[in-house]
Design goal:
CATH superfamily: Flavodoxin domain
Order of helices and strands: EHEEEHEHHEEH
Bound molecules: flavin mononucleotide
Distance between the termini: 8 Å
Number of strands: 7
Shape: globular
Strand content: 25-35%
Radius of gyration: 16 Å
CATH class: Alpha Beta
Helix content: 25-40%
Number of domains: 1
Length: about 160
């Protein structure tokens, strides 16, 4: 299978996930390429049997450049895709010291559902998705431990859909 991974990483975490995903997919005997969306034209996507789109989060949503990219993307109806989002890890509420509940987190984390809605609207078919968490004080942060294992799982889910 030929897979192209488009991402919009700003601080490098999503780029790391994309590269790792490429290696895992290739290690399983498939072809994969990685592109940053800023070096790509949404109406001239590389030919592939399956696309992966990965986005950082801004105020609970996909970064604007990814939203625009997906809206403009031209792909035949029925094309399969997988999604990943990078999110800041949950932190305790400053006043109460409590961590948000799963229900609260899914209400705030809209990156995957918004990307999905755009692509479903074009008749595309989702096969897998995954959230990767970024933690740390600095803006750039770092991928939370276990991210490589999650990337493996993600690759298995993608390839298992073939
Ligand atoms: C201005 C700004 C707003 C952000 N808002 C959110 C947010 O609402 N929810 C969230 O989970 N992460 C948020 N983040 C953290 C990003 O998700 C994180 O920086 C990004 O996923 C890292 O991916 P990258 O290294 O590939 O750019 C925000 C980051 C910035 C800089």
């Amino acid at each position: 299978m030929k897979i192209v991974i488009y991402h919009a990483s700003k601080f490098g975490n999503g780029a790391k996930v994309a590269e790792e995903l490429r290696k895992v997919i290739e290690g399983k005997g498939h072809q994969a390429e990685v592109r940053h969306i800023k070096a790509s034209k949404p109406k001239e996507l590389l030919p592939a049997e399956l696309y992966v789109f990965g986005s950082p989060t801004r105020i609970g949503k996909p970064i604007g450049s990814m939203r625009r990219f997906l809206k403009k993307a031209t792909l035949p109806s029925g094309t399969r895709y997988a999604l990943f989002a990078t999110h800041g890890d949950a932190v305790p509420n400053k006043k109460t010291g409590k961590l948000p509940t799963d229900e609260e987190l899914s209400r705030w984390r809209r990156t995957l559902p918004i990307m999905d809605e755009i692509l479903k609207g074009k008749g595309l078919v989702k096969v897998a998705d995954k959230i990767f968490l970024v933690s740390g004080e600095q803006m750039r942060g770092h991928l939370k431990e276990g991210w490589q294992g999650k990337t493996d799982e993600f690759a298995t889910a993608i390839l298992g859909s073939a």
